[in-house]
Amino acid sequence: MSIVGKSAHSAKFRRNRWLLTAILSLYFIYTFLPLFYVITAATKSNQDLFSTFGLWFAADFQLWENLETLFTIQDGIFLKWMANTAYYSSVSAIGAALFATFAGYAFAKYTFFGKKLMLALVLGAVMIPQTALVIPMFLMLSNLGLTNTPLAVILPSLVFPPGVFLMWAYIDDAISNELIEAGRMDGAGEFHIFSSIAFRMLMPGFATVLILAFVANWNNYFLPLVMLNKPDMFPITVGLAQLYSTAISGTGGVLLFTVVMTGALVSIVPVIAAFLIMQRFWQGGLGAGGVKA
Amino acid sequence: MAVIELRDIRKAFGAVEVIGRANLTIDDGAFVIFVGPSGSGKSTLLRLVAGLEDATAGQILIDGADVTHLGPAERQLSMVFQSYALYPTKTVRQNMSFGLEVARLPKAEIKARVDGVADILRLGDYLDRKPRALSGGQRQRVAIGRAIVREPVAFLFDEPLSNLDAALRVEMRIEIAKLHQRLGATMIYVTHDQVEAMTLADQIVVLDKGAIQQVGTPMELYQRPANLFVAQFIGSPKMNVLAVRPDGSALVFADDSRADFGMPVPPSLAHIGFRPEEVQLLPAGQGHLQGKVEVVERLGSDTFVHVGLGALGIITSRMPGNVLTISQGQPVGLGLTMTQLHPFSRDGIRLS
Questions:
Q1: H or E element at residue B332
Q2: What is the CATH number of the domain that holds A136?
Q3: Most C-beta atoms within 10 A of its C-beta, which of A184, A293, B63, B191?
Q4: Full set of structural domains in chain B with CATH
Q5: By CA distance, what is A186's nearest residue in B?
Q6: With contacts defined as CB-CB under 8 Å, which chain B residues touch A197?
């Protein structure tokens, strides 16, 4: 009897495919519902927010009014927060992605003393949440007099162990040793090989780490909360939380719930835009052709 | 153009010795091929010459100058890699000029050299393409071009043809031979393909288990292999080997059958070897050994007859042309000629 593999036409394959679609649909609903709630809530008036069905739009479409309030509240401080977030996250993300690429390249392509130990430390660091390190880091930066400066948020964010891990695995696969050796035979120094041959081949990996670090920093709440106490230095996360706390505690602050929701909606737009822009860099196959598989 | 000398070269990775005390002199302009099975150390030896690996002990000299501690580029060698190792984000022209740009040659000279080499290798139409838009053979030519433009003192090839299909491999083999005639440069070439070794080399270096087994011209290795390993590694189909013990002027095989040649036999003889073309197929009952045809392979130009000798194993005989008188299952006799036998000692070393 011959062995027949599962093909696209077999009943079992089709059954499995339906099951997969069903599970993924459930997952999609699970992730999309909160986002949808934010979208609908941002279009409502404060009264409608509590009196209408949460997952659908109210009759009174208030999005423009909410946006206007958002950008004018406290002399337009929301715009300042957005600029802060953009500044902290882009500098941190570019720095983190660069360092992750350097480290990953070294781990993947060089042998050096203590490599195994250092790699183990990086992998171990992936498991430690930044939250656990924020207080010691605060004390450290406080001693250096760096709290309440952008560096207080940027410096700790340059260390991105998951990015190092990702680049290590990616570079190990994407750049053949022979390619580096060809560069050496051509007389190029190690940094020249990295910058003029390897780096362009690493763009898909670099872009992935960049976007991951960017999103992680964009959404980071606890680190800036601890490091910064001047409202005009806050990123959106901390600023919105502050608005929210005035909304629930302050008199007359009731009005602000929808503004917080609108702020949340506005704050995710750049992240989505970043994903769409970076997408083309993920298209692999850059390494194809130079080295025969 | 260069004379390359290896003196007592050793290479160990940790406790594992990969090359043990290799001594070798490669003459100026010679085409030398390192051949051996996988794990024999042939690639490591090439990489030691290239400077991509550091020798654990010993010296490497190029034209009398000690280069043991110099980097790859300072040795002024070029290398062609098995995987081509072209820079995928650069065009063919950029690939070839990269090394020259690193060396800060004037732009006009870089252009002249690249154009000249592209002409020789028929790459002129592809200079603005990326490697992924080229066929396997074209990529290999770019890799060779990249090696030539640097005008090195010697070329190193690490199994350059093993990623190509059979037809292209033959074509590129001839191109490399022509290139060697044209440039007259010293070339060291690593392969596990003994046909490449036999056809291209001025000198073959046979390696096994990290040691040089024999150095010689292809015909020296074929006609006078220094030991059993070389005897069986060079030549296709490989040399037949039978265990024997001498008894006066006769040889006694493992199954106690005897062959008397009426000539003195060295007393330390333990194995005899003979090439497939050195054994004569005779009617059953004649000759020195009796057996039965097990498989007949017809190549058109040759017929390979595999004869089973029971406990002694299988002997291959090569006959020119398509021999129609032989068929499977047929009992045959095998005739040997004493002067054509390769005698080996118990340790596999050639006697005489």
A1: strand B331-335
A2: 1.10.3720.10
A3: B191
A4: 4-225 (3.40.50.300), 240-344 (2.40.50.140)
A5: B99
A6: 87, 89-90
